[in-house]
């Protein structure tokens, strides 16, 4: 799906019910490893690879709005990808999320 006037293409990835509150689900969307998270009823999508050491984040825990890298404990805010704790210094790439008719779609340009 593509929204009129936008270069972002949305890929349907899951039913809302497949992403439990307070959990992160690993997805491969359009060749990219992503985490789809639900926190306080809101859905967020970020890259699933830690920029510090290339570690897969889908082994990490979601604590509130932060995903914790299982290798060196770097933290990232899933709302915007911002790095919130070292040793990582770079943010994760974040992606727009669209909820429609019980489905979750992730936008990519």
Give a structural overview:
The chain has 109 residues and is mainly β. It has one domain (9-108): 3-layer Sandwich (Rieske Iron-sulfur Protein). 0% of the residues lie in helices and 48% in strands. It is built from no helices and 11 strands. The chain has strands at 9-15, 23-29, 32-39, 42-47, 61-63, 66-68, 75-77, 83-85, 94-95, 97-100, 103-108. It has a 4-stranded antiparallel β-sheet with strand order 2-3-4-9, with no helix packed on it. The protein has a 4-stranded antiparallel β-sheet with strand order 5-6-7-8, with no helix packed on it. A 3-stranded antiparallel β-sheet has the order 1-11-10, with no helix packed on it. It is globular, with a radius of gyration of 13 Å. The N and C termini lie close together (12 Å). The model has no long low-confidence stretch (mean pLDDT 93).
The strand order across the widest sheet is 2-3-4-9
Rg result: 13 Å
**Number of E-type strands:** 11
Largest sheet: 4 strands, antiparallel
Structural class: mainly beta
* Domain module tally: 1
CATH homologous superfamily caption = Rieske [2Fe-2S] iron-sulphur domain
Please count the helical segments. Answer: 0
In round numbers, the mean pLDDT is 93
